[in-house]
Specification:
The protein is of the alpha/beta class and about 375 residues long. It is built from 14 helices and 15 strands.
Length: about 375
């Protein structure tokens, strides 16, 4: 199989989907790896390393996107989808729920889209998303610490003195809590996920206040916060709007302007009515006196660490798709099958079909008909 690895073009994106070691394993198994020149340069992996791993280095994106299987990091950008081979396979963070026009384009091209964000392991954990979530969670606290500084428009509060409210209890939330605790913050975690919240309470003990989401709990916690870390993710569908504009405005009523909201899962739309995606080149804006940081690719700020972690998570799936082909690979791995969102012009992920208001094609029925 021919596998294409393009250079990412999203603002500030320096990650690469497959590092040279992963490419070497694919080539040794008899597959062809086409890597766009400088695809790994931003993460510290030059063309010579890929060439040494047996990859074909190509000058531009055309040959890469014409591959049987395109493996990239971020969702398809304008100018990229037209290069995809009709009926070809795409393996990346798809985020089609937040880009319905792109979803329609890929469906029209009968692209097979497997989304990193919904691939699972045997325990139904989001095995590819998890390492990126952990990195984003770790980064969210130093980002907030920087934005709390007076020269950056913040309240002038050191992160060790800050009241930090984390919304969510998954991988990103846990990593954010660990980092905030280590820096001495007053940490509260609010979540609807009861079992995950109990797990965090057991892990952190009295160092964190773990509060179930009910009634006015979130609104009250946010009103007193210096920092809110939004880490809510619902696989395959949009993030619920848990905070209104009035909730955000209330953050300034007691303690003045300069509080910070970091939206880790902005790819799903974010939890606040005031949130919209930003970029690493222009990461913040102020709404209702609160500095919003809503960068859709936070791990790209540490591209080497993130690329190594992402490549390790996806390499076994890429190898399975290349060795077995789509149908057998999905039949053999329910977790990989959970990542399939579109195929043959149809939506094969139930939550995504509902969000896009498209008919849903049952995956099991589709696989048995192949």
């Amino acid at each position: 199989m021919i596998i294409g690895v393009p250079k990412e073009i999203k603002d500030g994106e320096r990650r690469v989907a497959l590092v040279p070691d992963a490419v070497a394993l694919l080539v040794s198994a008899g597959h062809v790896a086409r890597v766009e020149s400088n695809a790994g340069a931003g993460a510290g992996f030059g063309d010579s390393l890929y060439a040494g791993a047996g990859a074909e280095i190509v000058a531009g994106p055309s040959q890469v996107f014409d591959a049987d299987l395109v493996v990239k990091v971020k969702e398809i950008q304008p100018g990229e989808w037209q290069r995809l081979k009709p009926g070809g396979m795409l393996f990346c963070f798809l985020h089609l729920v937040s880009d319905k026009l792109m979803a329609e384009e890929l469906l029209a091209r009968r692209t097979t889209g497997i989304a990193f964000e919904t691939v699972e392991d045997t325990a139904r954990k989001l095995t590819v998303l998890a390492p990126m979530s952990r990195i984003a969670g770790q980064l969210s606290i130093p980002v907030a610490a920087n934005l709390l500084m007076t020269p950056n428009g913040g309240r002038g509060i050191a992160i060790g003195d800050a009241r930090v409210v984390i919304v969510g209890a998954g991988n990103a939330a846990e990593a954010a809590a660990e980092t905030a605790i280590a820096l001495g913050s007053d940490v509260t975690v609010v979540s609807r996920a009861g079992l995950k919240l109990q797990s965090l309470a057991g892990k952190f003990g009295d160092r964190v206040k773990c509060v179930p989401f009910q009634g006015n709990v979130l609104a009250d916690a946010v009103q007193d916060a210096d920092v809110v870390i939004a880490a809510v993710n619902i696989p395959g569908t949009a993030t619920p709007k848990l905070l209104t504009r009035d909730h955000i405005a209330a953050m300034t009523s007691r303690h003045g302007p300069g509080a910070v909201l970091v939206e880790i899962c902005i790819d799903g739309g974010g939890i606040s009515e005031t949130s919209h995606p930003t970029s690493l080149s222009s990461p913040t804006y102020v709404a209702e006196g609160v500095t919003h940081y809503c960068v859709a690719n936070m791990p790209a700020a540490v591209p080497r660490s993130a690329s190594i972690a992402l490549s390790a998570a996806i390499a076994p799936h890429v190898r399975a798709l290349a060795d077995k082909g789509l149908t057998r690979a999905l039949r053999d791995d329910d977790g990989l099958a959970a990542g399939l969102q579109i195929h043959g012009g149809q939506v094969t992920h139930a939550a995504m079909a509902e969000a896009l208001q498209r008919p849903y094609r049952d995956l099991d029925a589709m696989l048995h008909s192949c």
